[in-house]
Design goal:
The protein is of the alpha+beta class. It folds into two domains: 14-41 and 48-163, Roll (2,3-Dihydroxybiphenyl 1,2-Dioxygenase, domain 1), CATH 3.10.180; 172-292, 2,3-Dihydroxybiphenyl 1,2-Dioxygenase, domain 1, CATH 3.10.180. Helix content is 20%, strand content 35%. The chain has helices at residues 14-24, 30-33, 62-73, 120-129, 188-199, 248-253, 289-292, and strands at 52-59, 76-80, 83-88, 91-98, 110-116, 133-141, 145-151, 157-163, 178-185, 203-207, 210-215, 218-225, 234-240, 257-260, 272-275, 281-285. The strands form two sheets. Strands 2-3-4-1-5-8-7-6 form an eight-stranded mixed β-sheet, with helices on both faces. The longest helix has 12 residues, at 62-73.
C-alpha cells in the first residue's frame, strides 16, 4: 500500500503500553502474571524464533471491540479474569486487554504482536544496544512464559516472548485467521537489519520498498517503507477473508472505518485497510493458497 493514502492515526502513548505488562505481569505483583493464558492450549515443546505467535488488542473499550470483530469475522470470546481470549473456529488466535485512558483522553487502540525468541534476556540487551527500548521486563508469566515489551529504533511496539510450553502449531491460515503482519518504517535498511538479527532470520527478500523476513524456509513477516514520518513505527496485521470488498459495508455498519478500498493500491489490489471501532488498524485480504502459494 502506498503511504500517500495513509490517514493520520493517533499512536498509543508509551505510558499506555507500559501499563500492558506493568499492570498484568508486574514483577512486584507476580500473581497478576498468572492472568495471561498460554498462547497454545496444548504444549508443543517446539519453538520457532522470529515467528509472530500471538496478537493482543490493547483497547479502551473491549465490549465495542468484541461486537465489531465478532460481527465482522465471526470471532468468539472467552473472559478470563480481566483478559479476553479471542477464538476463530474454536481455535485461540489472540486476546483483548482493556485499558481505560486517564481523564477523557481519546486514545486509538492497537494490535500488539508477540514474536518468539530463544532468549528474552539476551534479546532485550541486544535491543537496547541497537537503539531500541525495553519498556517493561523481562518478566516471568507462569502460564505464558518469559517476555518483555520493547520498541524498535523507530518506536514500533513488540513483545518478545519465550513461551513456557512451546509455540502454537503452524497451520495454513483459514478465513478469519491472521494471514500476515508487517512493520511500517521510514528507514527500510536499518529496520531490516534490526529485525533480521532480533528474530534470527536466515535471509531476507527485498523488492523495491518492501522486505520479507524468512527463516525455516517460510515467510514470517514483512517490512514496508513509508514516506511520511507520522506513519512510522507500527506493526499492522492482516486477516484473511473471502472478499474484502464485500465486507466494507459491514465494517462501517459495525462502527469501523474504511481507509483504503480494494483497488486503491496497485501492489495490493484485493486488500482493504480499515480500523475497528476504537481505532486499531488492520488489513483484510483474500488469499488463495492453491494459486498464490504458502510462502514456503
Amino acid at each position: 500500500m502506498t503511504s500517500r493514502h495513509f490517514p493520520v492515526l493517533r499512536f498509543l502513548g508509551t505510558a499506555l503500553l507500559l501499563l500492558l505488562l506493568a499492570g498484568c505481569v508486574s514483577q512486584s505483583s507476580p500473581r497478576q502474571g498468572d492472568l495471561l493464558p498460554p498462547v497454545t492450549t496444548r504444549p508443543t515443546a517446539t519453538w520457532h524464533p522470529g515467528r509472530i505467535i500471538w496478537l493482543d488488542l490493547v483497547t479502551p473499550d473491549a465490549k465495542r471491540a468484541e461486537k465489531f470483530y465478532g460481527g465482522l469475522f465471526g470471532w468468539t470470546f472467552e473472559h478470563e479474569n480481566n483478559y479476553t481470549v479471542i477464538s476463530n473456529n474454536n481455535r485461540r488466535i489472540g486476546g483483548i486487554i482493556e485499558l481505560k485512558p486517564e481523564k477523557q483522553d481519546k486514545v486509538a487502540a492497537q494490535w500488539l504482536a508477540s514474536m518468539s525468541v530463544n532468549d528474552v534476556d539476551a534479546a532485550a540487551v541486544w535491543v537496547e544496544k541497537q537503539g531500541g527500548k525495553i519498556l517493561n521486563g523481562p518478566v516471568d508469566m507462569s502460564r505464558r512464559g518469559r517476555g518483555a515489551l520493547i520498541s524498535d529504533p523507530e518506536g514500533a511496539y513488540l513483545v518478545i516472548l519465550r513461551t513456557r510450553d512451546g509455540d502454537p502449531p503452524e497451520i495454513e491460515p483459514g478465513i478469519g485467521d491472521w494471514l500476515w503482519l508487517e512493520d511500517w518504517t521510514t528507514d527500510l535498511d536499518q529496520t531490516a537489519v534490526f529485525y533480521r538479527k532480533l528474530g534470527g532470520y536466515e535471509k531476507i527478500l527485498r523488492e523495491n520498498d518492501y522486505v520479507v523476513l524468512i527463516n525455516e524456509g517460510k515467510w514470517r513477516a514483512g517490512i514496508r517503507l513509508i514516506r511520511e514520518k507520522i506513519f512510522r513505527g507500527r506493526w499492522v496485521p492482516t486477516v484473511r477473508v473471502t472478499d474484502a470488498g464485500a465486507l466494507l459495508d459491514k465494517v462501517t455498519s459495525l462502527g469501523g472505518r474504511v481507509l483504503l478500498t480494494p483497488g486503491q493500491t496497485p501492489d495490493n489490489p484485493d486488500a482493504a485497510l480499515i480500523t475497528d471501532t476504537t481505532g486499531a488498524l488492520l488489513v483484510i485480504q483474500p488469499w488463495n493458497f492453491a494459486e498464490e502459494g504458502n510462502h514456503e
